[in-house]
Amino acid sequence: MKYQRYDRAMVLDYHEEVNGYMTVTAAITRPGVFPYRRADGSIQFEAKLPDDIFSDMVIQSAKAKPVTDEHPPEPVTASNWQRYARGMSHTDSRVQGGMLRVTLTVTDPALIDRIKSGDQQEISIGFETDLVAEQGMYQGQKYDFKQTNIDINHIAITKQGRAGPEVAIRGDSAAYQIDLEEGGSDMATYKIDGKEFEVPSEVKSYMDAQQARLDAANSKAGDYDKLQGRYDALEADNTRLKTELDEAKKSVLTQDELDAAVTARTELLSGARAFLGDSFDFTGKTDREVKLAVIEKVKGDDFKADGKSDEYIDAFFDATVERSKQDGFSSMGSNHLQTTGSYSTDSQKEIENLRAKRLNLKDSKGAN
Q1: Which of 48, 73, 281, 300 could be a cystine partner for 53, CB 3.0 to 4.6 Å?
Q2: Which residues are within 8 A (CB) of 290 and not within 5 positions of it... i.e. 6 or more apart?
């Protein structure tokens, strides 16, 4: 459900054209928490937050909208705009100084005279909005509702200090932005360091504008910090990916290394098959697993591989194969082989020598 709202601002800058028209530059709305008096007399505090009031939708909705003499009793449409329009807003709506600003051209001579005399110098936008029931705090003020999906319908020139046009309030869906000061006082309340001071309304408007500029600057600073954080995160990702790429390059084999690896694997499987037989499943087996299978086939339970390094297993495998070739082996059933010699201290020394040779070979490759 859309709710009708009417905001207030002041005509602070205008000049007359040679053709008699009046051009007005005005801030028509800004972020903040505002009190709205509803048709039943109740007051509720509603927030216009920067993300909502400065959205592309709201900025676009302020362009080329009718300027009216007070708020009309109905929304301005294509079918009734000639009845109510007394001018038109330009297409230069923009966020400036923490406010939504737009240039207006007033074409009605009577309304122009009332603006010049000071009798009618308040600007009030008529718009529709979705109200979200949401309690929060903005600029030190509490609110119970948040305005979102704001769509400006028209921009009215109204009498200064008017509490709200009765003809424009149509049921509970319409509410007019008010000042909480009663009795027609020209003094407004401005809070500094938690203490309230009475100041002229023009001074309060100026101070509010300065605060809005400060809020906009702080918002930009926050946006910068967010962008810096994103940049730093991307830079960290870039460094990590570069490191991973360098590590991946190190693990890529040259063609000669690949050929050597394939040859070594082929020779390993061919030699192991002589011990393990054709029925042994080599699929998915690492070189270490294949070598352990051969060692266990030959040595049986005498060999324990727990805690042994790859270099040790390689050396033990080479010694086992070499010893088996020298001593010979006999078959005790299908694919069961056992050396006919004994495993001596000389064999252990041979293993250590082979292990040392493998370590030296690995070190030389690493140096290259």
Answers
A1: 48
A2: 268, 269, 272, 282
